[in-house]
Structure formats: structure tokens, C-alpha cells
Specification:
This protein is mainly α and about 110 residues long. Helix content is about 70%, strand content about 0%. It has six helices and no strands. Helix 3 packs antiparallel against helix 4, helix 3 packs across helix 5 and helix 5 runs antiparallel to helix 6. It is globular, with a radius of gyration of 15 Å. The N and C termini lie far apart (about 30 Å). The model has no long low-confidence stretch (mean pLDDT about 95).
């Protein structure tokens, strides 16, 4: 990390406690996997959001909804994706995810 670069979210949360997890998160997942050329960042974001909604991972969803917006996915597309997933993943998970989205988008 350069002197001007801010620590990542993973580094802020776990830097001294779990440095290898920070390395895998920052360097492998976001540094290599997210940069692979065969899927656009927008597509990776939609896939990731769908996976997080399906698995009920509300804690990680907030970050990835914001990242999806940064990668060109509109709020209305994210709301529609969560609504669509309600039929495949179940109402409770979709309702939880929609609550996270509402808090993030309108909070």
C-alpha cells in the first residue's frame, strides 16, 4: 500500500488480527479475481449480489450493493434482482436484502 492509499475495509477490520485474510481479500479476490477479463465488473457485481442474497449474507451485502452501483448497476436493477430472487431463495432472505438495500439507497 502506498503512503497515499487508504487501508481497505478488510485491512481496517482485520489488519493486525488476520493479515492473511486481508491479503487474500485484497490481493487475490479483489486484486486478481475481480480483474479477470472474461466477465465485466458489472456482471461480477450482479453475480456477487445474487450470491449474497441467496446465502443470507446481509453483512457483506451493503458493501457489494455499493460496489455494484459503482460498477454501473442501477438501484432499480438491484431492487429488481432482489425481487426476482425472492422466488428462488425465499421471502425472508429477499426481505432482509431489500431492507439492506433500502437503508443504503434511501437511508
Amino acid at each position: 500500500m502506498s503512503s497515499n492509499e487508504q487501508p481497505s475495509g478488510a485491512a481496517k477490520m482485520f489488519g493486525d488480527f488476520a493479515p492473511q485474510l486481508v491479503h487474500f481479500t485484497d490481493d487475490i479476490l479483489f486484486g486478481e479475481v475481480w480483474e479477470r477479463p472474461d466477465l465485466a465488473a458489472r456482471d461480477r457485481s450482479l453475480i456477487t449480489v445474487a450470491s449474497l442474497v441467496t446465502s443470507g449474507s446481509a453483512e457483506q451485502l451493503r458493501h457489494h450493493l455499493g460496489r455494484a452501483k459503482d460498477n454501473g448497476v442501477s438501484e432499480s436493477e438491484l431492487i429488481e434482482a432482489i425481487t426476482h430472487l425472492a422466488f428462488y431463495t425465499g421471502w425472508p432472505r429477499a426481505m432482509t436484502a431489500m431492507g439492506v438495500a433500502k437503508d443504503l439507497f434511501r437511508g
